[in-house]
Amino acid sequence: MDMFSRRCVWVNGPVIVGAGPSGLAVASGLKTQGVPYVILERADCIASLWQKRTYDRLKLHLPKKFCQLPNFPFPDHYPEYPNRKQFVEYLESYARHFNITPQFNECVQTAKYDEPCRLWRVKTVTTNGSEIEYICQSLVVATGENAERVVPDIEGLKDLGGEVIHACDYKSGESFKGKSVLVVGCGNSGMEVSLDLCNHNAKPSMVVRSSIHVLPREVLGKSTFELAMFLLKWLPLWFVDKIMLFCAWMILGDIEKYGLKRPSLGPMELKNAHGKTPVLDVGTLEKIRSGEIKVVPGIKRFNCGMVELVNGDKVEIDSVILATGYCSNVPYWLQESEFFSKNGFPKNPFPNGWKGKDGLYAVGFTRRGLAGASADAIKISQNIAKEWKHELKQKKQKVPNHRRCISTF
């Protein structure tokens, strides 16, 4: 790389990596407090996960009031559970309202704290191959929990002979009409993909390898999540779990007879301890009861046009959809090991995982959805603004005519 093709940019404020909902929320807080920043995004749009890696029928699983970003409610005419298109439109309106303009098509290669200079050095590569190094005093990691797809290594998968895609590449079941499709994974995505396939006259089988909580999305017309949050104000977590499971049994019945075994820990306790989100049923269980969606155990291996299960059964299949989730990509680019663990999540659990040392922050890693990301974004923007204004005041007192020698954002 020619030395003249590399630019070095001083940022008079933080660098935010990621222009999803979490990064936008931090940027809006900084904007309202007059703090300059740069927001870097590897894709060519905001919220690329929502715009490019979600299926058509996706809706928010929680009521809109639990999913809105700071200082900008959803429009009144939006339904209680906005769909994918509406949520993207909301985020674009959010960016316009706060005049947030990310640097698109810039992929962060490395970010490292320069101890002698007490500065962060963030190196990016653009789509045309140009290298840029951003130098800043604060770094906000907003790449989130779902930056990269998880693709399991299953014996014989490459020899299947049929179509194999990850759920992030699935749009609708229209192209799978009449086909036998194996959906690997039984979380919210696996359940919804299976339902969508069924609604498009495909023949889905869903792999359920481990135990899982399935709850009704609503209880007596109220959001199950909202009910749980209300009860937690007055009752201990274990008792709220008992109430949730009783409601689930009353509304959904005994799901274990369909091959869906419940974990020993309650849904809220499991979420808090391990970040495992319960499934909110939007119609999949009815299809499982009718036999239109088959529940099968874990996979032993694939063969040509066939899958062999751990119980010895063999099932002919045409296609495989891997609803096997996502992971953080932080370990691939952030050269730091004190604040973030090897799995790319902050070592300190919620609500203490938003701030590290040396101006390092994390947002969107709470495993508590958009509400958790918004709560951390508010803390981060306020903390950065406080420190930035304090340092600005000190600089004015020491060096009235401070001269910047590098291009500044």
Summarize the structure.
This protein has 409 residues and is an alpha/beta fold. The chain has helices at 21-32, 48-52, 84-97, 188-199, 224-232, 237-252, 267-274, 284-290, 330-333, 369-398, and strands at 6-10, 15-17, 38-40, 106-114, 119-126, 131-136, 139-141, 148-149, 163-166, 180-184, 203-207, 214-216, 218-219, 222-223, 279-281, 294-296, 299-303, 306-309, 314-316, 319-322, 326-327, 360-362. The strands form seven sheets. It has a five-stranded parallel beta sheet with strand order 9-20-10-11-16, covered by helices on one side.
Describe the 3D structure:
The protein has ten helices and 22 strands. With 409 residues, the chain is α/β, with parallel strands linked by helices. A five-stranded parallel β-sheet has the order 9-20-10-11-16, with helices on one face. A four-stranded mixed β-sheet has the order 1-6-5-4, with no helix packed on it. β5 and β6 form a beta hairpin. It is globular, with a radius of gyration of 23 Å. The relative contact order is 0.18. The C terminus is likely disordered.
